[in-house]
Specification:
Keywords: Cell membrane, Membrane, Transmembrane, Transmembrane helix, Transport. By secondary structure, the chain is of the alpha+beta class. 50% of the residues lie in helices and 9% in strands. Among the domains are: 166 residues, MetI-like (MetI-like fold); 118 residues, no CATH class. It starts with 7 loop residues before the first helix and ends with a helix.
Length: 470
């Protein structure tokens, strides 16, 4: 009986049927609910895409109008002639490598790309490292970085004045002439010369000699003209008439010119000044036996050994004064302009490198010093390798920048040397908008510039991606 007896739960089970299992296996999804979720996800994705496109559309329109279209039009225009009506093929590109002016621009661009970024980066590295531990380092960095606040136009005007040939106006030549005159004897009376009635004659090489030998006891007159009153020595005094000397040779060297007229040649007039500092030599048989210089009043004396000698005024008295270096001449104009560029951008390099230097692990540097490395070894073997990524950023940025340099060359280089300082950006302007404009050649130069910039940009993008992966 017990085996056949059913409980109330069994009876209820028989009546209601099997109860569905609970748990994840027993759950079933309705096809309608799954499709609704898929459609919702698709709609959300579509809305996000439309929203992103709506925000990006203005930027894409500007990018296309200001970048893509000009590039495409320049490429197309480079295959047409000057008028833009006849197809010229590759003629414009052939001109780039056959025209002497454009080839000079290409050569100068290569010099710019190699020299300017390297020098600016090296100076920035040196400034950043040397000023890291000094108290006035911040002030020094501020001074070095200040040229970045000046526009290229203003910097060009500044350096056009700095490189002036006249030492009285150009700072570079003023310094250069000052250093030169410190170590080289300067000329006292450039362009001074005697008159035909004077007792002097040319001796070759710019020197002058007396027409007859001098004799002891006979005063010697050495008059000259051609010295501007403003170039006379400031402490020159009125000349004193030559007087006889007992056993030696005496005389006077003076400027035989009276302002306002009225003077007599070969005679010392009251208003005429002595040629202070004029060098005088006594020459016998081709050898100098005595030498002297004129005093403030022009008087001079020579020993008795000069008796019977010919007095010579060396050419060093009359040579043109040293006027410095032709910084804007055909040979130095490109290095001079590169110098102005480095002056502007060395501060930019210094600031970026200093920021990278501040993030270096100090324990590595201190460990190297503890192991016995000197500062040069620490700098060369640790600091520079650790700063490699920063140096790469600075170098690539400056390389892209110099490929577009235009303002400095256009402003600093004078018209006579502009062909020698020419670069591609300047030649692009001259070919496209100059007096003999050829838009076909100008467009070809623009395409060439683009092709030169693209590899540098590709290297920069590749480096940035590598840094992001780290």
């Amino acid at each position: 009986m017990t085996g056949t007896r059913k409980t109330a739960a069994d009876a209820r089970h028989d009546t209601e049927g099997p109860r569905p299992r609970s748990g994840p296996r027993s759950r079933t999804r309705s096809p309608s609910r799954s499709g609704a979720r898929t459609e919702a996800r698709t709609g959300t994705r579509t809305r996000r895409t439309v929203t992103a496109a709506a925000f990006l559309l203005p930027a894409l329109v500007l990018l296309g109008a200001l970048v893509v279209y000009p590039i495409g039009y320049s490429v197309q225009r480079s295959f047409f002639d000057r008028s833009g009506e006849s197809f010229a093929g590759l003629d414009n590109y052939v001109t780039l490598f056959t025209d002497d002016t454009i080839r000079t621009a290409v050569r100068n661009n290569l010099i710019w790309v190699v020299v300017a970024p390297a020098v600016a980066t090296a100076l920035g590295l040196i400034f950043a490292v040397l000023t890291e531990r000094v108290r006035w380092g911040t002030a020094f960095k501020l001074v070095v970085f200040m040229p970045m606040a000046i526009s290229m136009l203003a910097a060009g005007i500044i350096f056009r004045l700095v490189y002036e040939q006249d030492p009285d106006r150009g700072v570079a030549n003023a310094v250069w002439v000052g250093v030169h005159d410190t170590f080289a004897e300067s000329s006292g009376f450039p362009r001074a010369r005697p008159l035909p009635v004077h007792p002097l004659e040319a001796a070759g090489g710019g020197a002058y000699v007396t027409k007859a030998p001098v004799r002891a006891g006979e005063p010697v007159a050495l008059p000259l003209i051609g010295v501007p009153p403003a170039r006379m020595p400031g402490d020159a005094r009125p000349a004193r008439a030559p007087a006889a000397s007992g056993g030696g040779i005496s005389g006077t060297a003076w400027l035989d010119f009276t302002r306002g007229g009225g003077g007599k040649p070969n005679a010392v007039d009251p208003k005429e000044l002595g040629l202070k500092g004029l060098r005088i030599e006594a020459v016998k048989d081709g050898e100098v036996v005595a030498r002297t210089t004129a005093g403030a009043d022009g008087t001079f004396t020579l020993p008795a050994a000069a008796d019977g000698a010919v007095l010579r005024l060396p050419a060093s008295n009359f040579r043109e004064q040293y006027n410095g270096v032709a910084w804007l001449g055909p040979h130095l104009v490109t290095p001079a302009i590169i110098g102005s560029y480095v002056w502007m951008w060395a501060g930019f390099a210094m600031v970026l490198i200093a920021a990278g230097l501040a993030g270096l692990p100090r324990d590595v540097l201190e460990a190297a010093r503890v192991d016995g490395a000197n500062e040069w070894q620490v700098f060369r073997r640790i600091t520079v390798p650790l700063l490699g990524p920063v140096l790469g950023v600075v170098l690539v940025t400056l390389m892209i920048n110099v490929l577009k340099v235009f303002d400095l060359v256009f402003i600093i280089a004078p018209g006579s040397a502009q062909d020698d300082a020419n670069v591609l950006a300047l030649q692009l302007y001259r070919s496209s908008f100059g007096t003999d404009a050829d838009l076909g050649v100008g467009s070809a130069i623009a395409v060439l510039l683009l092709l030169l910039v693209l590899p540098v940009m590709a290297v920069n993008i590749r480096r940035m991606r590598r840094e992001n992966r780290r």
